[in-house]
Amino acid sequence: xxxxxxxxxxxxxxxxxxxxxxxxxxxxxxxxxxxxxxxxxxxxxxxxxxxxxxxxxxxxxxxxxxxxxxxxxxxxxxxxxxxxxxxxxxxxxxxxxxxxxxxxxxxxxxxxxxxxxxxxxxxxxxxxxxxxxxxxxxxxxxxxxxxxxxxxxxxxxxxxxxxxxxxxxxxxxxxxxxxxxxxxxxxxxxxxxxxxxxxxxxxxxxxxxxxxxxxxxxxxxxxxxxxxxxxxxxxxxxxxxxxxxxxxxxxxxxxxxxxxxxxxxxxxxxxxxxxxxxxxxxxxxxxxxxxxxxxxxxxxxxxxxxxxxxxx
Length: 312
Fold this sequence. Notes:
Oligomer: single chain
Strand content: under 5%
Number of helices: 17
Number of strands: 0
Shape: elongated
Structural class: mainly alpha
Largest sheet: none
Number of domains: 2
Radius of gyration: 22 Å
Distance between the termini: 20 Å
Helix content: over 70%
């Protein structure tokens, strides 16, 4: 969970105009950043940011915990992003099999020999934000949503499941494939930038036929290994395999690098535009508070929003 949400709730409870404005700024940044990562278009991200926060204002003072706020905020932002016209037009929700994402023997050899040990590192230079944004945008929405929530927004597996309505096992599967897809897009971008030769489809096909079963099993569990979700006994087996398999080590390093690059992408809204929108939000927040206090006189007991609730 983003620490910004904890800080925003603390500021709201101070009930001072300057503290409320700071809280709204934090919430703006959180929703805009999430929306840009998912939608990839500033206009859609700005629309989502404003719509979500306008919906949030009547409930903001009622949240008891940052966890409750996190679930509510991401659920509403996620649903709004899925409705965006650009996202709907360009969405590709085809499921991608693990076999499609497995590296060929030639690719593993290329990584292991160090010719381009971390190809995605080249992406983050002069045009790092733009190239990374493009790579994230090419991950199909089916996997991108989980990738953004887990690796960029910092939600745990169970929290992502709560926001998306998926089972935790499905979250882990989609996260791993999302990471693999992102890594592949970053690699392609790096190769395009450096004009490096690409392997032919024949090589890829032949490589998949000859890849050892142990490497394939290792490949399927790399995200759980990275996130320390593998049982100790099995982790020792994986460590032993890595000690003996240089190509798998090289691929694991490149996957970790892709995840780190993914986590570094934090788009921000134009400062002037954000201030203009925040001024409007402040007015609406004060109106929402006045309405809340008015209803409190008629009904003294108000229900706080708890972690398990979901208001949309």
